[in-house]
Amino acid sequence: MKRRDFLKGAGLVTATAASGLGVSLWGMRQARAFGEVPKEAEGAMLPLELQAENILEIFLYGGVSQYESFYCVPSLGEASGTQWHAYLKSGHVQAAVDQCAFQGPLTEPFAADSMGQAVHLGPFVMPLRERPDVMERTRVSVSAHDLEPHEGAIPMMLGGRGLGHPAFSGLGAHVQRYFLERFNTPGRAPYSYALMSNGANGLPTDNVRSVVSIGMHPGAARPLAIKVDAAGDLTSLLARGTVGQNRAQYDALMQGYIDRYHERLRWRGEGGPLRAPRLGELEAASSSIANAQAISGVLEPQFFTKIGGSNCGDNAGTDAMTMNLKLAAHLLRHPTVPARYVCIVDTGLLSADGGGGYDTHGENSFTQARNLSHTLRQLLSVVNAPGENNPAKLDLDKTLIVLTTEFGRTPFKQGSQGRNHWPYGFPVVFIGGPVRPSGKGVFGACGEDGRATVASTPQENRMAALLSLGIWPFAQESFNVSDVPGATTEVEAALLVQKRQLGVVA
């Protein structure tokens, strides 16, 4: 563009603004803090009494088999021997039920889906079925995407974006940034955590570390990642033994360097410094090191004592899932510095044949039954039952629990006992928080071929979690109106997400 054309255009814009024309166009995008609700959208937000205080997300790594768990439609696949019937007719489902000593009918009616089909809960979620109070606060969202490999599907479900997208960010970064910018108490423990297992050898290759990605957020937004069954390195780092008694001098020296760089970024020593993302990340890292004592004060040693576990006749020397759940409840219910978001990567009591806890290519029924029922049983052990009111346990009025997985399993068999990857229709589950008995149910539906006929997008599931905390999810760092099918405005998108994913109707 020629300089005179640019100036002519700029002059036109200035004149238009000065005349009062186009003021509404310019006023629509006023600068706001991240997550701040625009005035015109305040009426679309969840009422305060429905908002959650925090989120516990469990990422069921590997791909949960929906037919025996959260989305069993007995009327589908009977003639073809697929979906629920694939391993029911072969006897493998019953064998797994017997091995795990589940009591009660194989399936239990739950709710009608968006096509009016009767959705049941399957036998592998028996611990959930044994808690009617929790079932009354449960909503299933049928989701879909088209990425079959773990390496692409995991980032899509954890971040709502594909790999390489500049705004690709885990949910924890959104939450960490939002609360850090509003309640930035010096020396405070993090607002977001990611809890993993040292035994999950697929973590680096399958992109599960997407859970701590920050996208376009500043470095300070990164959640703290912890391997609960290998915390020795973390505790030794928090002790800062390499600087010994010189910690104060070291921290002052680092701050001195940072201040000098800030000064170099100011024009002739005046005004604010230029933006420098890398310097911001260095400053955040330095601050975290200086405040290591605050983190070690929250991560109490008893939560890192290794414990064993057993389920369905199998034993594990280290039960990382139970350890992680105990630590998560402690972090979320901490009396002085509670976390706002904790994500646990669930790799199962014992790993599946394909990796993770649920990647069951060779043997589906028993592995899924053992790992999923174990996770649900241990989860519900840290959730208050009616009348319990234990301050150390999770309160479903205050905590939204999200059960996420990268995809489901094929409606047809793989080999004689397994199932392959299936991203074309699978459940994401919301429990508690804004989900009340009036919102219990199912959004979406799958057809005879197992493909979703009505589905939510991965972005909608991420947006629902943010909205449950009162965080406006529309920004360049997060999501767009186009991520919500059928929406034309941000307000309309927020209302649709809350209705579909959380069962809340304005």
Automatic annotation (TrEMBL):
<dbReference type="InterPro" id="IPR010869">
    <property type="entry name" value="DUF1501"/>
</dbReference>
<dbReference type="InterPro" id="IPR019546">
    <property type="entry name" value="TAT_signal_bac_arc"/>
</dbReference>
<dbReference type="Pfam" id="PF07394">
    <property type="entry name" value="DUF1501"/>
</dbReference>
<dbReference type="InterPro" id="IPR006311">
    <property type="entry name" value="TAT_signal"/>
</dbReference>
<protein>
    <submittedName>
        <fullName>DUF1501 domain-containing protein</fullName>
    </submittedName>
</protein>
